[in-house]
Design brief:
The chain has about 290 residues and is of the alpha+beta class.
Length: about 290
């Protein structure tokens, strides 16, 4: 149930006081830290806050001849610049749709961003290292899961409609009455708890049995005789669990009916959970 979250390591490294370009090339401006920048598109408006997730297209070249990072889309979390000429300083100045060039100090970037202890022999300290960045979007980290869910639903409209129809058919055949949450999750309580509910970040102890809609069991902590313990609401489990377990109170039992886009999406998981599979989890919140 772990989720892979794509993040660069640029924002959790040691401080360096090396500067980028003391004499800015024509058309560039320089920040106090020495980061040289030139905007190609500058839309104005809001800029990202520290902690926001930023969707950007990024590339990096040296001397306009050596490609270090080919143009690719990434999602990074914006933190405070961790060394002088860290391009994070530049991203913090950008608006949605902006594109810009940033000339950074090659020594400090290799050492702090790429974690290379010394500059590779084929390069010199006077070489020009330039990042090309376009900001496609940015938003608070809390919105990440919802954006990913909407993206997969829009990408697979037919599969999403089929998944909904399959869930409704299952409810009808099994005389189950359930209403969805805003995300499309269904939860049916089978046994009350003590009323005390977990909060985001709490470590929960849960017994569960996971099934496909055809009744096939693919995993069960009950059969193993050992409940799992995970932080809830933090992305350590599938979105359907992060939401569903927080609807329960301590000691409560219930059933989560999870549409594919709140579970394992278009890829499935292992041999037992196919792509686009709706899932059923019988769960017991033992403690937190």
């Amino acid at each position: 149930m772990k989720r892979v979250f794509v993040m660069m390591t640029a924002f959790c490294v040691m401080l360096s006081f090396l500067t980028g370009c003391n004499n800015a090339p024509k058309g560039y401006k320089t920040t106090n830290s020495g980061l040289c920048y030139r905007f190609h598109v500058n839309n104005g408006g809001e800029v990202p806050n520290i902690g926001d997730l930023v969707e950007l297209t990024l590339s990096c070249v040296i001397n306009d001849t050596t490609v270090i990072i080919p143009a690719s889309k990434n999602i990074i979390q914006l933190n405070e610049p961790s060394f002088a000429t860290d391009f994070a300083e530049g991203v913090a100045m950008m608006h949605k749709g902006d594109s810009a060039s940033f000339i950074v100090n090659i020594d400090s970037t290799f050492m702090n961003l790429f974690r290379v202890p010394e500059l590779p022999k084929e390069f010199n300290s006077t070489d020009i290292m330039r990042f090309e960045i376009k900001v496609n979007d940015f938003y608070p980290e809390s919105e990440y899961v919802n954006k990913m869910i909407e993206a997969i639903k829009q990408k697979y409209p037919e599969e999403t409609a089929n998944a909904y129809a399959e869930m409704q058919q299952y409810f009808a055949l099994n005389n189950i009455s359930a209403s969805p949450t805003a995300s499309g999750l269904y939860y049916v309580q089978t046994s009350e708890g003590n009323g005390e509910m977990p909060e985001k970040g709490d470590n929960v102890k849960v017994h569960y049995t996971g099934k496909l809609l055809n009744g096939k069991v693919f995993d069960s902590s009950v059969e193993r005789g050992e409940p799992i313990e995970v932080p809830i609401g933090m992305g350590y489990v599938i979105p359907g669990w992060d939401e569903g377990i927080m609807l329960m109170s301590k000691g409560e039992k219930g059933v989560l009916y999870i549409p594919y886009y709140l579970a394992y999406g278009d890829r499935g998981a292992g041999a037992d959970i196919p792509p686009f599979a709706n899932l059923i989890f019988e769960v017991e919140l033992i403690d937190f």
